Amino acid sequence: MSEVAGRMAVQAGAHCLEMEQGGRGMLLGGVAGVAAAKVTVLGGGVAGINAARMAIGLEARVTVLDIDVARLYAIDQQFGASVDTVFSTRAAVEEHVLTSDLVIGAVLVPGAAAPKLITREMVAQMPRGSVIVDIAIDQGGCSETSKPTTHAAPTYVVDGVVHYCVTNMPGAVARTSTFALNNATLPFILAIANNGASKALIDDPHLRAGLNVHGGRVVHQSVAEAVGTPFTDPLEALQLG
User: Fold this and answer.
1) What is the pLDDT of residues 169-203, one digit of tens each?
2) The whole model's pTM is what?
3) Secondary structure of 90-156 in the HEC alphabet?
4) I need a surface site. Which of 74, 91, 163, 180 has the fewest CB within 10 A?
């Protein structure tokens, strides 16, 4: 679903840049003699990579920020000169957010609230009519000015900056999202059906990584930290029953 959300973020952001939506009146890829829009993607995970892929396909100028150097290297190898990769520091985030036409928040900390990378002060200094699409809104959002919106009323404006903060973004393309989710989850469903939940979780570290609570114990480190409860190793909890 992160793949769908990442691709949708660029589609939604491009629409929000139109004048009627409160945007700067920019075509994401520009035209001959007119500069393309600058797109900054905060986070180089699945959603961020797919957002970058879409933005590159529309011929925008794309920068991806992340704190994982290995991930930045992989993105650089994948997209080459089509994207700039930048190690994420507070100074780097501020520099790129303040000079962007479209900022996509694709920061994900599994099981925990998203870090607030974009401050109110940054938003106030962004170009009028620029756009923030906060994919991380399902986990609280990565901008201090983000608040959940719906597909019926997807945007609002703060200090002249259009915010698109729809929760469950993939719900707008339900057919594509359903097939994508089915493809991703079917192997896990079959494993549980054939082996039982406990054995399937013990055998598959990827399935086990999605387990939050078992037998009354919190078995996800980030969730335990977020709610202030003791953490139990998931394998230990599963073996205890």
Assistant:
1) 888 888 998 998 899 899 999 999 999 999 999 99
2) 0.84
3) HHHHHHHHHCCCEEEECCCCCCCCCCCCECHHHHHHCCCCCEEEEHHHHHCCCECCCCCECCCCCEE
4) 91
